[in-house]
Each structure stands twice: as C-alpha cells, then as structure tokens.
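If I may wish for something, please walk me through the protein I am sending here so I can picture the backbone:
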Amino acid sequence: MARRSFYSAVLSSFRAFVFTVAAATALPVESAGAEPWDDLQDTAAAISRPDEYAWKVFVSINWPADIAKRAANSSAKFGADGPVVWETWKIARDVFKSDGSDPGAWLDQIKPSVRELADFETRPLQQIARDAQLGIARPAFDPQAALTLTNETRLNKDTYEFVRSNTLYNLDGQNALAKQGQLTISFPNRAKEIKAQWRQISEADKPRYHWTALKTPDGQERIYGLTALHITTKDLPNWFWATFEHVDNPTRSGNESWKLESRDTFACSTKPFNCNLAPKGIGLEGTKWANYRLRGTQVDFIDSRGSTTLLANSEPEEGFQTTSSCITCHSRSTIGPSGNDRLDIFRPDGQSFNGPPDSNWFIIKDANSKQTGRYAQLDFVWSLFRARPKK
C-alpha cells in the first residue's frame, strides 16, 4: 500500500508538470485553428479533457480518405461512404511479414477499395495470445469464422516509419536492440495505432454502420460493419488510450455484454457519465458515426485516489473485461536478451494485468533468483510481438 501511495504522489506531480509544460508550449486544439480532419497531437487536451480529445481524434481518423495519399480528403463530407483515414494506414499483416523482410515505403501496397478477406485476422492478437496461454487450440486465422467476424491492426505513418527505420519489423532487429542492452524505445509524439473489429452485416444495416466490402476466397463480396475501434496515441509518455463500440453491441446476439460501465464526460453532462449518447457539436449528427459510443479513456495506471483504472471493449477484451487495463497490459510489451523471450500478456488465469507495473516484471532471474538480464520495454506497442525472423 505504501508503494502505491508513493506512486500516486509521484504520478500526480508528473501529471501537473506535463500539463504545465504542455500548456506553455502547445496551443489547445481549438485555439490552434485545427480543422476536424487534421492529424491531432495535443498533450494538454489528452491530460485535461481526455474524453473530448478522444472524440476529436475519432473524427479526424474517421474522416473520408484520399487513398493515394494515405491522408484525409479535406473536400469530402464527414460520414460519406468509402475508406476513412485509418483504413489507409499500414495494416500489421503487411508490416510484420512472415519472412521478416522490409515492408517498403509508406506509399507502397495501397489496397483496392474491395479488399481480400485474407488481409484480415479472425481474432485480435490478445485473444490469440490468451488462447495460447490457456492451452486452447484454435487457429490464428480460421477462414470459416472470418466469414462472420474479423479484425485488423493498423499503424499510422509516424508509427510505421519508426518501426521501419529501427528495423523493428523483424525479430532480428528487435533481438539486436535487446542485446545492445537498450531497455526502452520511444515512438514519436504523433504515433498512433488502431485495432478494429468487423462483423458481417446486411444491406439494410449499412446506413447505421461504417462498412467495407470484403472479397471472400470463393470470389463473393460481403459487407462488414465496424463494431469496435481501439485508438492509442503517443500524446503522453505512457500513451493515450480510448475505445469505441457500436451502440448495437451489448444487445447483439452472441456478443458479450458491456461488463464495465461506460464513461464519457464529453457526451454526458452529469455523473455517472454513462448516458450512452454520442456528443453533439462535432459533426456526428445525421451520420453513421452517431451510432458509436466512447466506452472510456485511460491516461494513468491509477486515478488520483490510488484506485486501479480499467478500460475494456466487449469484443477484443471478451472474457476479461472486468480486469482489463490497456495501459498496464501494453506496459508488458517487451523482448528479452535471448531474443525470443517476452513477458506474457495475461496472468495464468487468463485475466489481464492491471494497476501500476511491477519493476520485478522486467528483471530476468535464474533458478537461484540471481538477476541474469532485463527485458527491453517496447514502448507499449504489442503489435511488435508479430515480428518474425528474417529469412
């Protein structure tokens, strides 16, 4: 308890320091004259108005895209059909190739408007890792299961360029980092990553969902609607975390209910801030995006009272919502000096780690409890777990 109280005091001082520096060196998003489609990076907003900031990032990355430029199309109307900005970012399957080769320049491999189902994954990385840890045998990609539900992870340009320039796209590059004794890496402030979940929907559902057309192995096109969107940005040293879901999710057959109460101080005017509404005044009205809800944001391991903070999405965190902490889980993204050694994502019971990280996690010991090395922390980016050896 004493360690937690000390941590809370230090963290509160740090937050005050970050906010003071940010306020002195960066204008707030509104006064900086930012357009709604601009690539946002605002430390002060992330700290002081996290829910409002989450929604503004949501709008900016869901703006209709100029596919050739992998950027926002400023002349397009928000809510129009077609790919949005984050759908032009690099998909993780193309970044971390099975042969460990260089994934190429940012503007390479732009996907057509109708994509292949094989570009996606059946289940999120955390669910695949959880199965492996619990000894559950399920294929990482099941073509039959993907006909109804699929997901993807994407890296924006700043995240991608950092991965590529530091050769973190293969295990050889990560091994070299670990063997050099470098204990941390740091992505640039504008780094962003998303995890998206999709399910097959009917033609009648299309107006209520952001949707995409996917071609199945038999050549058919199927319509998939976006049901969940995790967003993480490097606005803060330990990243800024936000998660959104479609309003239908908790009542949809086969979907896990929302086991953590939503919290959105921007859309909801009074406590307990779980009004289950979309905010007004930022352009959502009359668009498909008004059917999405902010489940919550996370900027610290604990709150000002020293209580553990939690954040979960009912789809990628199915089965462990009540213990889910994005920030704590991602703090365990590591690689050991042996090159193949990483911290487990989950506890032995399949539940999520939460609360402040334990410094002992990052120390490697032998059978006699003698320290033999340390894990290199990969700046909260679990997608680096996908790296394979260079062939």
The CA atoms of residues 19 and 44 lie 5 Å apart.
